[in-house]
Amino acid sequence: QWYQRRVREDESGLAHNGGVMALSYNAAGTQLITASADKTVKQWDIETRKCVSTQNMGKDIADQQLGCLWAGDFVVSLSLSGEINYIDLNSNSVTKVLRGHQKSIETMEVKSGKIYTSSFEGRSSIYDAESGEVNYFTGATHKGKILDTKISGDTLVSVDISNKVLRTPLSSCEMGTDSSSVPSNVTFFDVHSGSGTEIYCCDMALVMFKDGNEVYTNELKYNPNGCTISPCGTVLAVGSKEDPKLYLYDIEGNSIVQRQEIDLTAATTELKFSPDGKLLGAATVGRTILLLDVEKSYKTVQHCWSTSSKSISCSFSPDSRYFAIAGIDTNIVVGDATKPMDPSIKILRAHPLGTITRVRWLDEKTIVSTGSDMQVRQHTLSV
Question: What's this model's pTM, rounded to 2 decimal places?
Answer without folding.
Answer: 0.90
